[in-house]
Design goal:
By secondary structure, the chain is mainly α. It contains 3 helices and no strands. It is elongated and about 65 Å long.
């Protein structure tokens, strides 16, 4: 019985460590709740009208892959 509790404790410690590691990473900023972004943003193509190379607010070269903006960036609610 002592072995089972040790196993449960070890599993709990591992889960806690993984949770801590996943919650300390840099989070993507929310999409601003301003007049520029207030239209119903549902397509990545809308983002690229401003955030593509050569546009008014291009993404940095260090930005992660750009296939799906809404996978990381959420619409701000306030």
């Amino acid at each position: 019985m002592k072995g089972i509790w040790s196993l449960i404790l070890a599993a709990g410690v591992i889960v806690a460590i993984l949770f801590f590691i996943s919650s300390t990473g840099k989070k993507a900023p929310n999409i601003p709740n301003d007049t520029i972004h207030s239209s119903s943003l549902t397509l990545q193509e809308i983002c690229l009208t401003c955030h593509a190379p050569g546009r008014p607010a291009p993404l940095k070269d260090t930005h992660p892959p750009k296939e799906d903006c809404f996978a990381c960036h959420k619409i701000s609610t306030h």
